[in-house]
Design goal:
single chain, mainly beta, 7-stranded mixed sheet, 4-stranded antiparallel sheet, 11 strands, globular
């Protein structure tokens, strides 16, 4: 059974930086697609960054240029480096992975439907104060 454990969240002032980590256990091969979602209070959950098994990345416009997604396959880990944080980045951040290899499945990008993400972490809170 796949388990995802996020860490690295916290409280920072606007302009600060954080690095989120997600350790993946319970699976020995590389996911087809990995990513980060976030959900702010009272808002819908949104995909903000994805990376596929070929290290091709995709970002939401709201984080492009400020957030960087990366993987360390040797450590079965996924990261999200966040710089120049803004109060509107305040949210709970979730690590997601999917191991599907089905013909015709959606691409690995931020538009991939939520029901195509097989495994989710519990989330880590990021709070940015002005």
């Amino acid at each position: 059974q796949v388990h995802l454990a996020e860490s690295g969240g916290g409280s920072v002032q606007a302009g600060g930086s954080l690095r989120l980590s997600c350790v993946i256990t319970g699976q020995t091969y590389t996911p087809y697609c990995m990513g980060w979602f976030r959900q702010a209070l009272g808002k819908e959950r949104e995909a903000i960054a994805t990376i596929d098994h070929n290290s091709i990345t995709s970002y939401a416009d709201s984080v492009t240029g400020r957030f960087t997604i990366a993987t360390d396959n040797a450590k079965n880990a996924l990261y999200l480096q966040m710089i120049n944080l803004k109060p509107e980045d305040t949210a709970k951040y979730y690590c997601v992975v999917d191991y599907s290899a089905v013909p015709g499945m959606p691409k690995c990008d931020i538009f991939r439907p939520e029901n195509w993400w097989g495994d989710w972490g519990q989330g880590t809170q990021v709070t940015v104060s002005s």
